[in-house]
Amino acid sequence: MRALMVEARIKPGDVVLTQGAGGVSIFAVQLAKAAGATVIATSSSGAKLERLKALGADHLINYRENSEWGRTASELTGGRGVDAVVEIGGPGALNQSIHAARIGGHISLIGVLTGISGDVATALAMSKNTTIKGVTVGSRQEQEEMIAAIEANAITPVIDSTYPLDRIAEAFAHQISQKHFGKICLAI
Question: Does the predicted TM-score (pTM) go above 0.90?
Fold first, then answer.
């Protein structure tokens, strides 16, 4: 919510690019659609892309099959570029996100799944006047606004699986396997 509504300030008609099929990305698809945005979703799995489509994603890109997915996302907008990117990949994906972004676009850096440092196309980001902002947990007010948006739009969180606390190692192993779709929960 914070990445899309507070930082990128999306509005109806905007184009949002999401990465993967984890909990953050799935919520981004659901919230962007509720806000009237067009969603381009990426994943390395055709099956997960189909599930993202069922949740409302308008365009699908398999990044394993298309290493230039950022350019493809831009082409899907007629070359204008996307308004907002929910960036969870980090350095291994950031340059493609910059290619996808429109001039003046916003990239919310939420995750660093591909590592904590790497080469960044700084000249491209600068020439596009791209905003790249790290996004972490928001304020209480933002949380309450997100809950209100979820309730108003009848958004149901996608839960992949739930583990008891004494099986937390299995939960992490499942996350690392990247076979999940949605949130992995712990029962306490």
Answer: yes
